[in-house]
Amino acid sequence: MRRIVLTGYRGTGKTEIGKQLAKIYAVPFIDTDALIEQRTGRSIPDIFHEDGEERFRDIEREVTASLPAADVIIGTGGGIVTDPRNMENLRRGSTVVLLTADIDTIGRRINHSSRPPLTGLPLREEIAVMMDRRRQNYYASSDLCFDTSDTTAEIAAKKIAGLIQAGTATPAARTDALAFFRSGRIPAPALRRLEELLNNPPSDPQTRILGVAGYPCAHSRGPTLFNGLFAEYGLNNFYTLFEDPELSQIMQVARAIDAKGLSVTIPFKQDVIGYLDEVDEHAAQQIGAVNTVVFACGSAIGYNTDWLGIRKPLVGMKGAKVVLLGAGGVASAAAYALTDLNMDVTILNRTPERAKELAKRFGCRWAAWDTFDTIRPDLVVNTTPLGMEPDTRSPLNESQLYPDLTVYDLVYTPPITPLIEMARAKGCTTITGTGLFLEQAKEQFYLWFGIDVPDETMRKYLP
User: Fold this and answer.
1) Domain 171-304+440-460: which CATH class?
2) I want to staple 305 with a disulfide (CB 3.0 to 4.6 A). Which of 222, 251, 277, 443 is the partner?
3) Residues 391-445 pLDDT 10s
4) Binding site residues for NADP(+), as ranges?
5) CB distance 143 to 133 below 8 Å
């Protein structure tokens, strides 16, 4: 059987429910904390007191790497999910179940625990602070979520086993989702895989689906990249296209089949916020656009990873004069990244009112599109879709380029756009959108699975 791993905060029932699951499946139960105490000959409070938390985490990492690969139920320590190396080991070949409970229930269950406090706060406040601090990590660890607040370990184990056997999507939801995917431009091999996963019954109810949400999005390199990474890390997931002109339809299907996550692209990066339960600080309060959705425990949470990918190759140009072309969702992320680097930003857009609005949000300048020649920037960043296949136009013409200009085109299909090709011919320094795609996808993978993928591994699966 596929290994079952239980994650969650202390007091959510990992040990007792794990033992009950072990009885159901007739396999051993291993508690990582108990295994640490067995191997070291010391209690965890003693390890914390004598060696500190950092040494405990080292031991925990070693124990996690040595766990059996199959036919076992594993209960984990509350903080194990914060280490990407642990997540890489725990997620491989496993179904990971996140156990949750309300703060009062957890407080009652651990009130007399001998574990050392992790903060100087009273117990209830510490639980609230630590659960909030680790929440993103817990969500990244989860294939399934189960609230243990009002149930016994025996009943919880039976219900979890039922979810693992049947999946979380209803037969009607799978039927509707399959009709949705058949109406799109999904390649035949991918559609056959979806038909297997969404059949009644499905070929593997534990497989979670992810995809790119956009219109159009058939050009996306996401399926090749992420499905390659799923195979690399032994993850039971499938990434596909959620292509539809109606964002409401996409979100309805994604929620109904309990999708794991979405990459959001043109033209939905701003509108998708209205379909989410919450958004993180960067996406909501600053950028106003979402390119990553994480579905976990009944919630849809939005993030923006574009700005990190845009920022990384420009760190050496802090304070430069820059023209930002475009005023959409990607432009918002770019403006955030550029102002974070203290650049002198002027935003140009075919619709000046949108440029003005975006400039006001970020404290930048704005101007009419045809004023580019009067600015003579050090850097130009293209966030418009011009140059994206099949539209092969360039947002600038050859006469507007000069050798001491750096041109950063965020379009990544094709890898060498008409703008980049012209800029290279004029002797400009160029940055292609492939780097952005890699960096933002790397951050997405971390948000979805808690695994930090090395750049060389990412590049291995870039089409």
Assistant:
1) alpha beta
2) 443
3) 889 999 999 999 999 999 999 888 899 999 999 999 999 999 998 999 999 999 9
4) 326-330, 349-354, 410, 433
5) no
Residue by residue, DSSP assigns 134-154 as HHHHHHHT-SEEEE-TTS-HH
Contact 29, 73 (CB under 8 A): yes
What's the pLDDT tens digit per position in 241-251?
999 999 999 99
CATH superfamily for 308-431 is NAD(P)-binding Rossmann-like Domain (3.40.50.720)
Give tens-digit pLDDT for 152-211.
Answer: 999 999 999 999 999 999 999 999 999 999 999 999 999 999 999 999 999 999 999 999
Annotated binding-site ranges: 265, 291, 306, 326-330, 349-354, 410, 412, 433, 440
The greatest distance separating any two alpha carbons of the chain, rounded to the nearest whole angstrom, comes to 75
Please compute the mean of the pLDDT values over residues 83-104 and round it to a whole number. 98
Q: How is the chain split into domains, by residue range? A: 3-166, 171-304+440-460, 308-431
The answer regarding whether domain 3-166 maps to CATH 3.40.190.80 reads no
Catalytic residue numbers, as ranges: 269
For residues 35 and 18, the answer to whether their CB atoms sit within 8 Å is no
